[in-house]
Amino acid sequence: MEVVIVPDAKAAGELIAEAMAQLLRRKPDALLGVATGSTPLPIYEALAAQVDAGAVDASKARIAQLDEYVGLPTGHPESYRATVLRQVVDPLGLSEAAFMGPDGSAADVQAACEAYDSALVEAGGVDLQLLGIGTDGHIGFNEPCSSLASRTRIKTLTEQTIADNARFFDGDLSQVPRHVITQGIGTILEARHLVLLATGEGKADAVAATVEGPVASVVPASALQLHPHATVVVDEAAASKLKLADYFRHTYANKPEWQGL
Question: Which domains does the chain have, with CATH numbers?
């Protein structure tokens, strides 16, 4: 896989945003898979800045959601749908019609999972999927020992994840949903290009296990090794445990043919 080491989160955001912009120039109606959380925010900010400056036309872009809480009412401000609309769809000047995601408030959640998996296929597949990574190597909400062939499905949040997410619910653990819908690893691997962003020393062990360790369900992100076009973008802190860091710097830094990832 391609491993690109950048100085900081801002540089990572600009690099990945340019990759997305180049994709939109080639394919204006590209389906962009997005993730939530604080890590990808520099990407969305940089891409919105390009749109505002007229450097890229995103008017035909489509946005696909990676995961969603189960049980939050429609329109809840902390639902991932509301978050993606607020952080990605609105800043890019898109309408809600450009957005697709699983229905976490459905009466039949399993049917909603299957419907979303099918909808991604019917939409022509995800062109570029953004991913974050947990300190334990999870991607989406595919926790360690998730099947590497898994499809979009219901998952139970770990106690650590519930505690981590409580800050979005005024610190009230009781308000954090216990279940989510997540694209499975098998679903994620069907995207044409996977771009994983990790920043900070706290992600260094997970990044090393993902890139240089064996493919194993105990590190779900290691499944990216099986993908024909996977790019891992990390800052110096997240790259600090990579044995081949110098090789990656030499191979992928300022490479002329390496345009837009």
Answer: 2-252 (3.40.50.1360)
Q: Produce one character per residue of 120-141: b if its CB has 16 or more CB atoms within 10 Å, e if not.
A: beeeeebbbbbbbbbebbbbbb
**Rounded mean pLDDT of 68-90?**
93
**Would you give the DSSP letter of residue 222?**
G
- Is 138 known to be catalytic? yes
Place of tokens 């947990």: 134
Outline where DSSP puts E strands in the chain.
2-6, 31-34, 62-65, 67-69, 99-100, 128-131, 153-156, 179-182, 193-198, 230-235
Give CA–CA dist 80/78, Å, rounded: 6
Prediction pTM value: 0.94
Q: Going by DSSP bridges, is the β-strand pair 67-69/179-182 parallel, antiparallel, or unpaired?
A: antiparallel
Name the catalytic one among 67, 103, 117, 235: 67
Contacts of 60 (CB under 8 A, 6+ apart): 28, 29
pLDDT, mean of residues 216-231:
97
* pLDDT greater than 80 at residue 255: no
> What's the mean pLDDT in 107-121?
96
Determine which one of 14, 18, 117, 138 is catalytic. Answer: 138
Q: Are 2 and 232 in contact (CB under 8 A)?
A: yes
Out of 45, 78, 136, 205, pick the active-site residue. Answer: 136
Task: Give catalytic status of residue 127 as yes or no.
Answer: no
Contacts for 125 with CB less than 8 Å, ≥ 6 apart: 31, 190, 191, 192
pLDDT at 256 over 50: no
